[in-house]
Amino acid sequence: MKGHPLQGRDFLKLLDFSTEEILGLVDLAAELKQKKKEGIVHDVYRGRNIALIFEKTSTRTRCSFEVAAHDLGMGTTYLNPTDSQIGKKESIRDTARVLSGMFDAIEYRGYGQEIVEELAKYADVPVYNGLTNEFHPTQMLADLLTIKEHFGRVSGLKFVYLGDARYNTGNSLMVACAKTGMHFTACAPKAYWPESELVEECKKLALEHGGSISFTEDVREGTRDADVISTDVWVSMGEPDEVWEERIRDLSPYRVDRSVMENAGSDAIFLHCLPSFHDLGTGIGRKIHEKFGLTEMEVTDEVFESEQSLVFQEAENRMHTIKAVLYATL
Known about the structure:
The structure is a single chain. By secondary structure, this protein is α/β, with parallel strands linked by helices. About 45% of the residues lie in helices and about 15% in strands. The strands form 2 sheets. A 5-stranded parallel β-sheet has the order 7-6-5-8-9, with helices on both faces. The chain has a 4-stranded parallel β-sheet with strand order 2-1-3-4, with helices on both faces. Helix 6 packs parallel to helix 7 (about 195-210). The protein is globular and about 55 Å long. About 50% of the residues are buried.
């Protein structure tokens, strides 16, 4: 999209973008999704290439970037944790300059936000955050698109996140809601609430855009009349197995089950960025079952497989929204 207002921009966190820019990307994703459904070819970036740096592996993020790039006519080079020398044999700034000479864009999925920020500082091409410890902006666009497809709007809706709200998903959902005028509630033990500095920034943004930010340890109070119920795995990628016992003890009361959805109401939807431990179909799920006797963790299988669950529509929308970011910034 030659001349797009976001041309040349990095996509590192939603705090860097205005409400109009965020919702513009959501609308663009909807247009590109419709084109794909209708079989309209939109390979406008033939001859361009993107480097995909994955220090943390992912099914959805990798597939989303690769399919989005392919649909736009781009080539992709995947660098897994053993392929990339970033920060090991080669500094982040040198990596950024080397890849800028070969690629038209760089995606990074890994650890600290400072890494992707430094990549962007020294790169001469757009840099995209596929996930860091602190933020997960591409997931937020997918969530916003899913919500808008279902409700026809995002502003004014009540969004409730249950579980560990301290890291990338909880942080980013709070930012996304604040920026788009939704009423965000984190329903979790106090020890699992986001850092106060980010909370205060989001409260100011929410006030500016007609939304709100709140926190509660009371599941029934927090989820009452919610439009969107969301959760995530209790142990994030890269965390040691030893924390499972603590998380199960602290977060089991915040499992999304039928009573939570009934308290929210029949019109509420359920979202989850995946993967999810809702049954014994995973190695980790079976391991936790053997050790702690649980068959379900952050969400019950009943809710996950219910008509209120839009998790697979949400997963598909990762690709369409990532495509919108590529389309707008290149």
